[in-house]
Amino acid sequence: MEVKKKISSSNSPDFFSKEMIISKKSLNENQLKFTYQKQLISDLDYKHKEWSKSIDRKF
Fold first, then answer.
1. Angstrom distance (rounded) from CA 16 to CA 11
2. Which residues contact 15 (CB under 8 A, 6 or more apart)?
3. b or e along 15-50 (b: 16 or more beta carbons within 10 Å of the residue's beta carbon)?
4. Which of 59, 55, 58 is nearest to 47 (CA)?
5. Separation CA 38–CA 3 (nearest Å)
6. pLDDT of residue 30
7. Cβ(46)–Cβ(56) under 8 Å?
8. Which of 36, 37, 45, 55 is 20–30 Å from 29 (CA)?
9. Would you state the pLDDT for residue 28?
């Protein structure tokens, strides 16, 4: 119980693992970038499908 209490009461701004340390701000920024890139890819995929439909109609 004491360990859980100690962890939850910690005000450390960093998440960590044995490999790296990143701040919450950095984590949030990377998440936003990832979400934006995913949306761009989705949009591009949609545009490509629409473009291929229009090409099929012409031929």
1. 13
2. 21, 22, 23, 24, 27
3. eeeeeeeeeeeeeeeeeeeeeeeeeeeeeeeeeeee
4. 55
5. 38
6. 94
7. no
8. 45
9. 92
pTM of the complete model: 0.48
Render pLDDT for 25-54 as a digit per residue (tens, 0 to 9): 998 999 999 999 999 998 998 999 899 888
Instruction: Give the per-residue SS3 of 5-55.
Output: HHHHHCCCCEEECCCCEEEHHHHHHHHHHHHHHHHHHHHHHHHHHHHHHHH
Average pLDDT over residues 10-33: 77
